[in-house]
Amino acid sequence: MTPKLTESQEDYLKKIFLLSEKHDNPVSALDISEHLKVKPASVTNMLKKLSELNLVDYKPYYGARLTRAGELVALEVLRHHRLLELYLSEILGFGWEEVHEEAEKLEHVISERLEAKIAEKLGHPTHDPHGDPIPSADLELPDDSHRYPLTRLKVGQKGFISRVTTQDTDSLNMLSRLNLTLKAQLEIIGQERNGVRVEVEQDRFLLPLELASKIWVETH
Amino acid sequence: MTPKLTESQEDYLKKIFLLSEKHDNPVSALDISEHLKVKPASVTNMLKKLSELNLVDYKPYYGARLTRAGELVALEVLRHHRLLELYLSEILGFGWEEVHEEAEKLEHVISERLEAKIAEKLGHPTHDPHGDPIPSADLELPDDSHRYPLTRLKVGQKGFISRVTTQDTDSLNMLSRLNLTLKAQLEIIGQERNGVRVEVEQDRFLLPLELASKIWVETH
DNA sequence: GCTATAAATTAGATAAGACTAAATAAAACC
DNA sequence: GGTTTTATTTAGTCTTATCTAATTTATAGC
Ligand SMILES: [Mn+2]
Ligand SMILES: [Mn+2]
Ligand SMILES: [Mn+2]
Ligand SMILES: [Mn+2]
């Protein structure tokens, strides 16, 4: 029933899942191509194969959608990835900007037994070091509907950073230096054409939209 | 200079290193073939490739010997492997019979940074859960000349188990059940044609030669 | 030293996953 | 609606690492 997928196949499925979260259209080959850093021809190739395995719905010039089976694979890999990120961060003292790359490789090779041990050690956590939700052991995602990107908040609202949706090492490092890390308290000072003006601790920043849209906040 | 080796290449180099430890002859293709569970033709193929990379000395019908460069790769992988085994065992509560398989895959994907974190967490250990020596960060093997297989000891000698040279899950599990684990105190009661007779705690066993030869002891 | 057996190599096939270049389909533009 | 641009697919090549089958070389027995 599960003839063991390759690393590549797992990465495609995971990426399709992540790209699907942004809209409900099928994911385009070009989109996958860019995010996976392979050429579009390679994507078409792989989509055909995954389609034959009934892991994606694919028709030429249509794009790709995960089947339920494909979604379950994606969630499993995502669980590995995010548990590993948290483990590296919490237990081994990695910075949040370092964990993604390492987890990207480890996610494919850890056994279910190791996954379980890690989850146990971490107390069955629901979110990783970037605030990304960790699928539970039975592959359900926790409810995250109460978090919003900075760009959607109104002036005067206060809250704390609850998620950062970039994996870029240098961006994450930059945010650390600005004390824009998880749980940091902040207030919206202004929503402007060129960014979001915020107050954090003693500091004030004008965060470019590009960056602000990746910082999610829980208000209180 | 180091164009990143594949998992396969690393496994071949590691296996050649381990097989070389048993004698000083070049390692035969058949030997590699059996231990790596690939066909001899595949071995020949790979040896040619590794030879071109100057990682092994290879001439047709001669066998393979690691070059210094190849040996360093092998030691690096071995360090990963054994550190991981110990980590899984000590920190995550895996049994000594479970760790080998897991480490076999992880050894190829951990970064030098993760290797260092693990070594640090473990206090820069010199031996893994089977008593196998762990190469140091600069790839030196600790001196292990004071340990001998059970089959070489004389009647009356006492000591403790210091190394077990099998990775077979079921054999290791069996040994656990018999309390024949690292540090177990024992005394040689007899050296016989069909095995070594030992006393461990309250128990006495006649260990078949096949098994006894894999149990190494430090005497006192 | 010849012969039988065992070991190793060669040759050719296959599968996975990437690529380039060319062809085709869809979308956007006016 | 025809034309240009963009996206996608097809066709064919490459690399890595396997395999099987056939051949060659080495070793062991007598
Ligand atoms: Mn990955
Ligand atoms: Mn994350
Ligand atoms: Mn391995
Ligand atoms: Mn070991």
Supply the CATH class of one domain in chain A: Mainly Beta
CATH architecture of one domain in chain A: Roll
By DSSP (H or I, 4+ residues per run), the number of helices of chain A equals 8
The CATH topology of one domain in chain A: SH3 type barrels
H/E series of chain A, N to C?
A: HHHEEHHHEEHEEEHE
Q: What is the molecular shape of chain A?
A: globular
- Indicate the low-confidence ranges of chain A by residue numbers: none
How much is the radius of gyration of chain A in Å?
19 Å
As a percent range, the share of strand residues of chain A is 15-25%
Annotated CATH homologous superfamily of one domain in chain A: Ferrous iron transport protein A (FeoA)
Structural class of chain A: alpha+beta
Which quaternary structure do these chains form?
homodimer
Widest beta sheet: strand line-up of chain A: 3-8-4-5-6-7
Distance between the termini of chain A: 47 Å
